[in-house]
Protein 1
Amino acid sequence: MPLAAESEIIKLEANASYYGEEFNGRPTSSGEIFDMNAFTAAHKTLPFGTMLEVTNLANGKKVVVRVNDRGPFVPDRELDVSKGAAKALDMIGTGTAKVSIRKIDGIDAAAANATSPAIAADQTPAQTTPTTTVASTTAPVVVAAPSLGSAITGSQWRIQLGSFSNEENANKLVVRLRKDGFNPAFEKTAGLTRVVLAGITDAMLSGTRAKLDKAGYGEYLVRREE
C-alpha cells in the first residue's frame, strides 16, 4: 500500500537558491543528467530520491521537488532548486528565497535513487494494465469512475487521480490535491508515477467522491483494494 504524502518538517525557515543554464545537461551527484526545467533539487545530506515540498514564505507558492544532487555549497543555504522549480516559486528575480521545507513520504527513496531521469514529454510510456490511465504532459487523462452502489461492506478503496510518465506532472497534481485538503500518495512503477488516494473505507468513500467532485476532480478511477 502506498505511503501517504504526509511528512516531517525539515526546516520551518531556510535560505534556498537555484541553478540552471550553467549546469544544464551535466551529470548530478546522483548520476542523473541535470535538467534545469525538471522539478529537482540539491541538498547536502538528504538521500537521493527524497521528495520535498518547498514553500516560498514571501508569497506562499509551493512546489514539490526530488533530491538528485548535492549542494548548495554556499554558507547559510539549505537547498538549491532547479530553474523550473524556482520559476514555480517565483524566485527567479531575487535569486534566493526564504522557504519552508517538508519531506513527503509518498515515494520509495531507494527506488527513486535507482530510477533513471524522467521520460521525456514526447515519449509514450509502456502500457501496464488495462486500468492504468495514460500519461499526459499537461494534465492527467483518466478513466471515469464506475458506479459503486453495490460497495462491499468492510472494503477499502483506492482512487487514482492520474498516471504520469513525467514526475513533474505527478508533483503538480499532488500539490493541488494537498491544497484542496486531500492526503494523496505516490505509487511508482517502471516508467510511471501514479497519484492516488488510498485506504478509503466504505464509510469514507461517498464523502471522498463528493469532495473530489466539488473540488473539480470530475474524473478518476476507483478500485477496491485487495
Protein 2
Amino acid sequence: MISVGIDVSKEKSTICAMKPYGEIIMSPKDFKHTKEDMEHLTDKISSLGEDVKCVLEATGKYHLPICQYLKSHHLFVSVINPLEMKRYRCQGLRNAKTDKIDSKIIAQYGIDHWYQLSEPQEIEQDRYELRLLGRQYAQTMKIRVKRCQALSDLLDMTMPGICGLLNDFNRYNGKDKLCDFVREYWHYDNITKSSEKVFIKKYQTWSKKNGYRRNEDEARQLYALAMNSILTLDSGSEPVRLMIQNSVDILKEVDASLYTILNQMRELAKTMPEYDTVLSMGGIGETLAPCLIAEIGDIRQYHSGSALVAYAGIDVPPYESGKFVGTKRHISKRGSPLLRLLGYQIIDCLNKHGPRMVNDTSVYNYFMKKRAEGKPYKVAGMAAFNKFLRIYHSRVTTITTN
C-alpha cells in the first residue's frame, strides 16, 4: 500500500508518496494547479503500480481543483478534517512546519489510518449551489448590519430618536420607510423650517407618493421630536447630507442584493424533497427554510441526529477521569457557526410568537420547560435547538429515503 500525502496551497501542492514503516518512494515535490502539472502528477501516481490512496487536508476552496482532478482520473482521494490533522501533526515535542514536512506527515497519516480512510460523498450540483448562495446571503447580511449601524450613528447626530419612531430598519415588500424618509429630509432642520401644519401636509403627500399609509399622528410625533432634539451636526453642511444619503443608497443596494439571493435560494430549495417538511416545522418560515436546508445539506451524510448536532457544534462531549464526572460542560462550538446562528433565530422566533404560529409545539414546549427549570435563555435555547435538529434529522430522513 502507498499513501500519497498532498499539502495543498493556493496555487500549488506539495506531494510525497510513502510506503509502510516510513519508506519514501517519492520525495516531496511541488506541482502547480495547472492541467499540465496535474497530468504529470496523475501519471506518476498511476506508475506506482500498487494500491494507492491520496490523502489531503481540507483547505477551504484551495483543495477542490486537485481533488476534483484526481477523482476524475479514478484515484482514491480522502479529505481530512484540519483539526484532526493538526492534532496528529502536533504529537511530537519539536513541531517544525514546512510544506515538505507537512506532505510527509499527511502521507504518514494515510499509512497509520489506512483502513479508516474514506472518500468524500459527492454533493449534488443544486445542493452545492444552494449552499454557496446560503453563505453569500449570510455574508451580505453581515454587511447590512454594519451599514445599518453606520447610518444609525449618523442619524443620532442629525435626527436622534427617529429610528425607534419609524420602526428602525425594517424591510416590508422591498420598502424601508425609515431609509426613504431620511433620504429626503436627512436633518431635523429640514422639518422644523416649516410649521407643524405645513409639515403634516407634506408628510401626508410624501407617504402617499412613496406608497406608505398616511398617518397624521406619526407626523405630529416627528415634528415634536424635531423641535425638542439637540443636534450635533449642522444642517447646512454638504458633507453631512452626502454621508447620510450615500449610506441610505448603499443600504438599499444591499437590501436589493439580499432580496435577489433569497429569491434564488427559495427557487432551489423548493426542488428539494424536504422543503415542505422543513417549512412545516415550528419557528421556520420562507426565509429560514432555504437557509437551513442550504447549511445542513443532504441529510444522508449524517448517520444520526447526534452527528447533525455535532455538525452544529452544540454537542457536549463527556469528560470523566477516575471518580470525577464533569457535569457543567460547555458546547463544543466546533461545527458550523452559521447553523448555530440559524438555531438562535429559530428559537427566538418560537419564543416571540409562541405556539400559535404552528401546529407542532414540541420544540417550543421543551424550550419553555427548560426556562421553567431556571435555565438561562441561551442554555435553554441551545437545548431546544438540539431537540429541533434531532426531529429535523428524523423527519427529513424519512422523506428522502421514501
